[in-house]
Design brief:
Number of helices: 16
Low-confidence stretches: 1-13
Largest sheet: 7 strands, mixed
Number of strands: 15
Distance between the termini: 37 Å
CATH topology of the largest domain: Rossmann fold
Strand order of the largest sheet: 1-2-13-12-11-14-15
Strand content: 15-25%
Shape: globular
Mean pLDDT: 90
Bound molecules: iron/sulfur cluster
């Protein structure tokens, strides 16, 4: 469901690059959307949304086109009648969970996912998770997080989910430093990174989220973690509370981002520069070659990124530095100054950055600039297309494997495709 908030613009100059800060009406999906990719990633988990019919429709329509097997998510609809008493609502929730676990013995991890209808806000899902955990432990672990659309954007659902997993992770069993990669990656991308870390001689690498509950990573003061996604502020904080240390790096998008991301880990684990060079060079060369044709297509073209997925700043860095695109404006829903510091340094000095959104003002700026390509949410794409602009849905960038060397050209292709299609239409 889209969220509308009113406010006024502010310009913040506390960064190396000035940022226009807006807090007006915004158009974003809520955190429930994260279930669409998270349920595919953690294969023995189930996501039970505690919400309204609107939440059920959102999840069904967002995930519907991608479901080919029995889904591992559902919505417990809290009707008005359930609200007569909270006891009734809690009993109803317990009844649904008991039924679900009896029907699906493969579930090892159950997330109760909160939403924003007022009737759900009144329910204490953390107490419900505790109560139900006592009933089903150790066979099923029950956790909770919020996917509410109030003041959040859709990728924050993953952040809330991963942050809820951190306290459930066991402590580290050895004193040796361990690398933890944090953020959902497609399995194929994860496997590529495992091969690279292996070749660099870095030993065991763990991932959060894991592919199944048994693979929950060990976490402790000897954990060094690399963020694979730029929207994981709460998860990073929860890891730091367990003593883990974040390795500062750009994000693994494009050849440059992937190399710098891998290098941050290699340096922290004492990998010799010569070995790093020898291992990564063939991948870099291949990926750079694959990008040439896209640079020919996209070089010099202008692009406007509306705030949506929080991937906008790393994407802008890739588009500008590796594909020579001209950045008209780079919007992001939230700007985590610390986690994005390495990215911001790589953006052009005169880049127009904006944080938050006042959608009407931003649309005016976009129309005035008439960029060659606009990256935006689904709600803005259709009206802009109707005005003759070429758009790319930002949500596709979250669903598609785009990280790492072997995906660099695929990432470029996602931006080239709408331009090629438009060119064919007008020819
Ligand atoms: Fe809509 Fe809130 Fe449900 Fe999201 S959580 S679908 S914003 S009602």
């Amino acid at each position: 469901m889209n969220v509308h908030v009113q406010g006024c613009p502010v310009v913040a100059n506390d960064l190396p690059k000035p940022v226009r800060r807006e807090s007006g009406q915004r158009e974003v999906f809520c955190g429930l959307t994260g279930i669409v990719w998270l349920h595919r990633k953690i294969q023995d988990a189930f996501f039970l949304v505690v919400g309204s019919r609107t939440c059920a429709h959102l999840i069904q329509s967002a995930a519907g086109v991608m479901i080919f097997a029995e889904p591992r998510f559902a919505t417990a609809i809290m009707e008005e009648k359930d609200l007569a008493g909270l006891t009734d609502a809690n009993d109803e929730l317990d009844r649904i969970v008991v039924q679900l676990i009896a029907r699906r013995p493969d579930i090892r991890l159950l997330f109760l996912v909160g939403s924003c209808p007022s009737e759900v806000i009144k329910l204490d899902l953390s107490r419900a998770a505790l109560r139900l955990s006592q009933k089903f432990s150790p066979a099923v672990r029950i956790l909770n997080y919020s996917g509410s659309g109030i003041e959040t954007t859709f990728t924050q659902g993953e952040d809330a989910c991963l942050a809820s997993l951190v306290p459930a992770a066991p402590p580290t069993r050895t004193s040796e430093d361990q690398l933890l990669i944090v953020g959902s990656l497609a399995d194929v991308v994860e496997d590529q990174f495992i091969r690279l870390f292996d070749a660099l001689g870095m030993g065991r690498v763990q991932f959060l989220p894991p592919r199944n509950t048994a693979g929950l990573p060990e976490i402790g003061p000897n954990t060094k973690f690399l963020l694979a996604q730029p929207f994981l502020a709460d998860t990073a904080r929860a890891l730091e509370d367990r003593g883990a240390v974040r390795l500062a790096a750009p994000f693994p998008l494009g050849v440059e981002g992937t190399t710098a991301w891998l290098r941050a880990a290699a340096d922290a684990f004492g990998v010799a520069p010569a070995l790093f060079e020898a291992v990564t060079q063939p991948y870099r060369i291949r990926a750079e070659r694959a990008l040439v044709r896209y640079r020919d297509l996209l070089g010099g073209r202008s692009i406007f990124l509306f705030p949506d997925s929080q991937l906008e700043i790393p994407l802008a860095r890739f588009l500008s530095r590796e594909l020579s695109m001209h950045l008209v404006e780079v919007g992001t829903p939230y700007l985590h100054r610390e986690h994005l510091a390495e990215e911001l340094r790589l953006l052009p000095d005169d880049v127009a950055l904006s944080e938050g959104q006042d959608v009407d003002l931003q649309l005016d700026r976009c129309r005035a600039a008439r960029p060659d390509l606009v990256v935006c949410g689904l709600g803005l794409a259709n009206p802009l297309e109707a005005e003759g602009m070429t758009t790319k849905w930002s949500i596709e960038l979250v669903f598609t494997p785009i990280q790492g060397y072997e995906q660099a050209a695929d990432l470029a292709e996602l931006f080239a495709r709408p331009l090629v299609r438009r060119a064919k239409l007008v020819a």
